[in-house]
């Protein structure tokens, strides 16, 4: 079914929705088949050093709540949720897995289709050692810029390949580049996914960004109860500092939890 046919189908099924989006002419790349609002938004949060839940965009927070999205966990106690984005393998994931195994910490790895195709043994190890593996799409597109059919293909292609490779399933999605819209949240929610953003992050997607001490201190300065921490596994400093970060957080009374504990 092409986009035009799909649009007719969706509009027929959602006649009760009186709030259809209007696509602005100057943004033709956002023309899609869904009737839900598709204004592209980027996940934004304002970190603080008071160890409090950070300020986030109100519209984004409301949309996440509506579709069971996640950017923090239980804030009633010193709970932390550690996540890694795996766009490509840079030689550090084995060390990260070793550290997590030795520390008995379970995390969530968000992988792309290319990552799975190139590193099936690492992905199988993630599953075997009790970690959650989440969906970061097959080709890492900005989801608000693709059609409903393409969005579903991006997610299902990876999910199907992952299940075939590991026997496990995917339930969590991290939108590429943190870009989303009402439409993408709605569609992915209907596909059975919870969108996972973050409340602690840093500029660590470059392999050489920061030193181990700098990256560890940046994370610790931004910690708060219920923090969902985003780290990039391509960064050597992250791999080197992970063990000490875990130990120092535990020394301060924090507990590492899995995303499955978030209601």
Automatic annotation (TrEMBL):
Origin organism lineage: Bacteria, Bacillati, Bacillota, Clostridia, Eubacteriales
Bias (Basic and acidic residues): 1-20
Pfam families: Polysacc_deac_1 (PF01522)
Name the record gives this protein: Polysaccharide deacetylase
Molecular function via GO: hydrolase activity, acting on carbon-nitrogen (but not peptide) bonds
Organism whose genome encodes this protein: Desulforamulus reducens (strain ATCC BAA-1160 / DSM 100696 / MI-1)
A biological process term (GO) from this entry: carbohydrate metabolic process
Region span, Disordered: 1-32
PROSITE patterns in alphabetical order: NODB (PS51677)
Record-level GO cellular component terms: membrane
Domain of life of the native organism: Bacteria
Family matches, as PANTHER family: GLYCOSYL TRANSFERASE-RELATED (PTHR10587), PEPTIDOGLYCAN-N-ACETYLMURAMIC ACID DEACETYLASE PDAA (PTHR10587:SF78)
Residues of the NodB homology domain: 78-257
InterPro entries per record: Glyco_hydro/deAcase_b/a-brl, NODB_dom, Polysacc_deacetylase_ArnD
């Amino acid at each position: 079914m092409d986009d035009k046919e799909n649009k007719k189908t969706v509009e027929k099924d959602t006649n009760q929705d009186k709030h259809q989006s209007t696509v602005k002419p100057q943004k033709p790349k956002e023309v899609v088949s869904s009737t839900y609002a598709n204004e592209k938004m980027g996940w934004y949060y304002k970190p603080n050093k008071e160890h409090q839940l950070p300020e986030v965009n109100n519209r984004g927070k409301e949309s996440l709540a509506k579709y069971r999205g996640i950017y923090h966990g239980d804030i009633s106690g010193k709970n932390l949720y550690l996540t890694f984005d795996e766009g490509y393998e840079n030689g550090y994931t084995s060390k990260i897995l070793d550290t997590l195994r030795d520390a008995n910490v379970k995390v969530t790895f968000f992988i792309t289709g290319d990552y799975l195709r190139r590193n099936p043994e690492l992905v199988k190890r993630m599953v075997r050692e009790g970690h959650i593996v989440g969906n970061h799409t097959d080709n890492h597109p900005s989801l608000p810029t693709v059609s409903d059919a393409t969005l579903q293909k991006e997610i299902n292609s990876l999910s199907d390949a992952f299940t075939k490779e590991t026997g496990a399933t995917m339930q969590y999605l991290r939108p590429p580049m943190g870009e989303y819209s009402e439409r993408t949240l709605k569609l992915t929610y209907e596909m059975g996914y919870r969108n996972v953003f973050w409340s602690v992050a840093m500029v660590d997607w470059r392999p050489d960004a920061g030193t181990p001490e700098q990256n560890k201190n940046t994370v610790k300065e931004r910690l708060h109860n219920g923090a969902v921490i985003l780290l990039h596994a391509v960064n050597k400093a992250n791999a080197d500092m992970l063990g000490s970060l875990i130990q120092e957080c535990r020394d301060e009374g924090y507990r590492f939890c899995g995303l499955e504990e978030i209601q």
